[in-house]
Design a protein that fits this description.
The complex is a heterodimer of chains A (191) and B (192).
Chain A lengths: L3 H26 L16 E9 L11 E12 L4 E10 L2 E12 L4 E8 L4 E2 L4 E6 L2 E10 L2 E13 L2 E9 L7 E12 L1
Antiparallel strand pairs in A: 1-2, 1-11, 2-3, 3-4, 4-5, 5-6, 5-7, 7-8, 8-9, 9-10, 10-11
Chain B lengths: L1 H16 L26 E9 L11 E12 L4 E10 L2 E12 L4 E8 L4 E2 L4 E6 L2 E5 L3 E5 L4 H4 L3 E4 L15 E6 L5 H4 L1
Antiparallel strand pairs in B: 1-2, 1-11, 2-3, 3-4, 4-5, 5-6, 5-7, 7-8, 8-9, 9-10, 10-11
């Protein structure tokens, strides 16, 4: 309930303003180009078994991998406008608990992936942001990796009702080449 | 995200060899209590009556009222809490959420606010701990979440106050109050 009143008040003021202003604004910014992506992440809801290959240093040691296996649970927030994902997996370095809050920005028509490191109880770094494109869902961000600004690309592919894959790639040459950093194959355990 | 996950694993590996005690070097550990369950009171489905003050300094007497449902749910077996708020008032429907995360090194909770209208995490989190019978979150302004100390009362209601202007909760100016009362237990499907 933090900032409930401050933000509640701001929200109330904005409701009236945006009701008038936002249709015109979105028309001038991107005519007819923005599709409704609010259900593009619906495939992600449910409980999944995940098999993860992680590349600790995809730039310098692209052949070094670590394997983890675990469970991913994704539940709706606000009746599906957002998603809360909980990850629990085990690997050679121990038990990993992480999570992601997926949020949809209805003005930008983009999703954001906000990663939480449970061991420190904090959001970790900037969100990756993206949308559905040519059959896949792609998110991008730029973060510091080993002291260099590095492009991050997260992609969901092979989406079926009971399985999908998620891959994260790094690029340190402005997106010309990409190295896999994290590959997960998920199979459905429950709806 | 990737870096985050990658960096996390780096941290995991280093944490096993070098415990996070270095992060505590400036604290007196004996004064840090385990607060991991301090937000348990927020779990459940609550009826909420909200009084908001849009301009607490300029017009402290001008209030607006909203009422709705607040749902608090555990994540990772209680290491975090997600709270969904749906409320209606004279200016429309409000959907928002708080993600409460516990930092086991700092022994503090953070409160990360999201408005469904923007789909963005707003600003810096409020950071807090349980102190003298109250739960206090601070961010750039000041918030004090006070909950009833009596167990019987505390299990069925709590009070959120959001004052502004001072980091001293005893002298802070009132910005707004929220009182949550439990509804009969309902499934998420019923709420939605």
């Amino acid at each position: 309930m933090k900032k409930l009143n401050v933000r509640g008040a701001a929200l109330l003021a904005c409701v009236a303003i945006s009701a008038l202003a936002s249709p015109a604004l979105s028309q001038t910014q991107a005519p007819a180009a923005l599709r409704d992506g609010s259900h593009d992440m619906d495939f992600n809801f449910g409980t999944w078994h995940t098999e993860i290959s992680r590349y600790p240093d995809p730039i310098a040691k692209p052949d070094e991998t670590v394997h983890l296996a675990g469970t991913v649970t994704v539940r709706p927030v606000w009746n599906g406008k957002a998603e809360m994902e909980e990850i629990e997996a085990d690997g050679p370095h121990g038990h990993w608990e992480g999570g992601t809050l997926f949020l949809y920005d209805p003005q930008a028509h983009q999703w954001s992936q906000n990663y939480i490191d449970v061991s420190v109880g904090r959001f970790d770094g900037p969100p990756t942001i993206g949308e559905y494109r040519d059959g896949d869902i792609e998110y991008f961000s730029q973060e510091d990796f080993h002291g260099r600004a590095t492009l991050i690309r997260g992609t969901w592919t092979d989406i079926t009702p009971d399985s999908h894959s998620y891959e994260e790639d790094f690029s340190n040459d402005g997106g010309r080449t990409w190295r896999p950093a994290f590959i997960a194959h998920l199979t459905r355990i429950a709806k | 995200m990737t870096t985050n996950i990658a960096l996390f694993f780096g941290c995991l590996a280093s944490a096993s060899s070098a415990p996070s005690a270095t992060a505590l070097s400036s604290f007196d550990e004996t004064h840090l209590r385990d607060g991991a369950h301090d937000m348990d009171f927020a779990i459940g489905t609550w009826r909420t009556e909200i009084t908001g003050f849009k301009d607490p300094f300029g017009r402290p007497d001008r209030a607006s009222h909203m009422s709705g449902i607040k749902t608090g749910r555990r994540l990772w077996n209680g290491k975090a809490v997600i709270e969904e708020i749906e409320a209606d008032g004279p200016n429309g429907h409000w959907e928002a959420a708080n993600l409460f995360l516990y930092d086991p090194v700092a022994h503090q909770w953070s409160q990360n606010y999201v408005d469904a209208d923007t789909g963005r995490i707003e600003g810096a989190p409020g950071v807090s701990e349980f102190r003298n019978g109250r739960f206090e979150f601070y961010w750039q302004a000041t918030s004090v979440a006070a909950r009833c100390r009596s167990a019987a009362h505390g299990a069925t209601s709590h009070l959120l106050r959001t004052p502004t202007g001072s980091i001293d909760p005893m002298t802070a100016a009132g910005l707004g109050t929220l009182r949550s009362l439990p509804t009969s237990p309902r499934s998420n499907e019923e709420i939605r």
